[in-house]
């Protein structure tokens, strides 16, 4: 199975993005979101911009016992836990693929205005690759990328 | 429509909008630096100073965000290394 990814020239270099919809009990209207595919991140994480879009009630989420704050894109964020989530993506045949995610990290800035982090993307990290059993194929010189298994 | 059908329809429409923007990213980033833009049916339908303003406008118009691609274009002087 192959999930095509988008490769965009940004900051003069190629970056890989995926579209995924996150569904969880506390998300009333699940929406497609853009994720940067980031093997440097241990976790799938929703950035503040996508927390706002999906109206995730931060106050209702649990805080983790470990890694309560994280440094990401040069800023410090509280990490909250979105439990019992699923990610939906489209494969190359146009069929929907569902990946169950016990935890999705949800990020909110520890200080400053939340709008200052609106350009920071959500990320698909290594836990997503592991849970989905995916290999990442990335050919930056030909602007091609996919998740495959 | 069943929930899974809605998710699939949204994903397909959103992907078209995201691809459209990716193909024109340099041109759009140049023009809308620092702004938040919304893309629907492969057209820019809103340009606002912030994401909050954009979401507020769609909410006031009761517009469903299912297929709308919203992006905040970083300022030229800022690059994100995650």
How big is the Rg of chain B?
A: 14 Å
- Model regions low in confidence, pLDDT < 50 over at least 5 residues of chain A: none
Structural class of chain B: alpha+beta
Order of helices and strands of chain B: HHEEHE
The proportion of residues in beta strands of chain B is 15-25%
Structural class of chain A, by secondary structure, is: mainly beta
Query: What is the strand content of chain A?
Result: over 45%
> Cα distance, first to last residue of chain B?
39 Å
Shape, per Cα inertia axes of chain A: globular
- Strands of chain A, count: 11
Our measurement of the CA-to-CA distance between the termini of chain A, rounded to an integer number of angstroms, reads 5 Å
Largest sheet of chain A: 8 strands, mixed
Quote the average pLDDT of chain A: 94
SS summary, helix count of chain B: 3
Any idea what the shape of chain B is? globular
Helix content of chain B: 40-55%
* Main interface by residue count: A-B, 36 and 34 residues
Note the total helix count of chain A.
Answer: 2
Gyration radius of chain A (Cα, Å) is 15 Å
Give your account of this protein's structure.
The complex is a heterodimer of chains A (149) and B (82). In chain A, strands 2, 3, 4, 5, 6, 7, 8 and 9 form an 8-stranded mixed β-sheet that branches. Chain A has helices spanning 48-54, 126-132, and strands at 2-4, 6-10, 13-23, 32-37, 45-46, 69-72, 75-90, 96-109, 122-124, 135-139, 144-148. The model of chain A has no long low-confidence stretch (mean pLDDT 94). With 149 residues, chain A is mainly beta. Chain A is 9% helix and 50% strand. Chain A has 2 helices and 11 strands. Chain B has one domain. A 3-stranded antiparallel β-sheet of chain B has the order 2-1-3. In chain B, 28% of the residues are buried. Chain B contains 3 helices and 3 strands. Helices cover 46% and strands 18% of the residues of chain B. Chain A binds chain B through residues 6-11, 17, 19, 21, 23, 29-32, 34, 36, 38, 40-41, 49, 52-53, 72-74, 88-90, 94, 96, 115, 118-121, 123, and chain B through 4, 7-8, 10-12, 14-15, 18-19, 22, 25-26, 29, 36, 50-52, 55, 64-67, 69-74, 78-82.
